Amino acid sequence: MWDYTDKVMDHFLHPRNVGEIENPDAIGEVGNISCGDALKLTLKLDEDGRIVDAKFKTFGCASAIASSSALTEIIKGLTLEEAAKITNRDIVEMLGQLPEEKVHCSVMGMEALQAAIANYKGETTVDEEDDHEGRIICHCFGVTDHKIRKVAKENNLHTVEEITNYTKAGGGCGMCIEDIQEILDQLWSDKKETPATDDDFKNLSTVQKILRIQQVLETEVKPMLEKDGGSLEFVDLEGTLVKVRMKGRCSSCPSSGVTLKYVVQDKLRELISPDLTVEGI
User: Fold this and answer.
1) Residue 250 confidence (pLDDT)
2) Can you spell out the DSSP letters for 93-126?
3) What is the rounded CA–CA span in Å between residue 21 and residue 45?
4) pLDDT digits (tens, 9 = 90+) for 156-168
5) What is the pTM of this model?
6) What is the structure's pLDDT at 63?
7) pLDDT of residue 200
8) Residue of 126, 165, 212, 254 with fewest CB within 10 Å of its CB?
9) Which CATH number applies to 6-120: 3.40.1210.10, 3.90.1010.10, 3.40.50.10540, 3.40.30.10?
10) What is the set of active-site residues?
11) Taking residues 222-246, what's their average pLDDT?
């Protein structure tokens, strides 16, 4: 029996916004019933581009239903630009916690939202590209090498167990475990040896850019600031300008400008794009 929080059980037993919007403005579909999980998200927007309604249909476990329900509650009332900043970590935070083995359910919710936003804008999602270009590594759950690299980068995953928790890859027959480990070894080896290039950043969609920036801030920058009682929050991305809000001791520190330039900005330039600049608000 999984150790679910009260919030997870509430969203599972009393899911919000179940169903499908008639004539939706955006549709996001991810997963595959044959693999055990699938989610369809439909959105209705007002004339200002704000999400006025969101509904879902999910085939999956309690965590999948709860994650989908929580997602719809989070994004209702947001603009697409605001919704694009939502990650699977926001879904988990709203639910209080998910078992590590069920984190992939929150990832599915995030990917459905990304797919819906891309659908509204007429863009192609990374997962759609994977369907055509990616090499299937886990045949049990249809997970490609592109998907493994993407999830590992966005969530700073280094072990096969973490990949399984986030994608289910490796959780079936186990024949792909060595292949997953090889992908991870190559990914993080390349990351250490290959500097970020501006072309890499320019080729990403807006959603992908934001997710990449948030991942670096969460895993590389915030831990350094938190050692001294500080923190920061990602606010917005305008072209190559990253806007953040300093928090904790950093919010009142007279050296916050130096921190922005030589800690935050330097780290983003090192790991993402040398053209990025950072501004505190």
Assistant:
1) 84
2) HHHS---GGGHHHHHHHHHHHHHHHHHHHTPPPH
3) 11
4) 788 999 899 888 8
5) 0.61
6) 93
7) 67
8) 254
9) 3.90.1010.10
10) 35, 105
11) 88
What letter does residue 250 receive in the DSSP assignment? G
Asked if 79 contacts 55 with a C-beta cutoff of 8 angstroms, the reply is no
Say which CATH superfamily domain 126-194 falls into: BFD-like [2Fe-2S]-binding domain (1.10.10.1100)
- Poorest-confidence range of 41-45, 166-170, 190-194, 251-255? 190-194
Mean pLDDT of 51-72: 95
Residues 6+ apart with CB under 8 A from 149: 183, 187
The SS3 assignment for 46 reads coil
Distance CA 216, CA 28 (A): 26
The burial class, CB within 10 Å (0-12 / 13-18 / 19+), for 52 is middle
Higher pLDDT, 184 or 135: 184
| Crossing angle for the helix pair 177-193 and 160-167, to the nearest 10 degrees | 110
Q: Whole-number mean pLDDT of the chain?
A: 86
CA gap 171, 238 in Å, rounded: 39
Domain boundaries along the sequence of the chain = 6-120, 126-194, 199-280
| Dihedral sign for Cα atoms in the order 159, 161, 164, 165 | negative
pLDDT for 88 beyond 90: no
Helices (H), the chain: 6-13, 62-75, 80-83, 88-95, 103-121, 126-133, 145-155, 160-167, 177-193, 198-202, 206-216, 222-226, 256-259, 266-271
Report the SS3 class of residue 61: coil
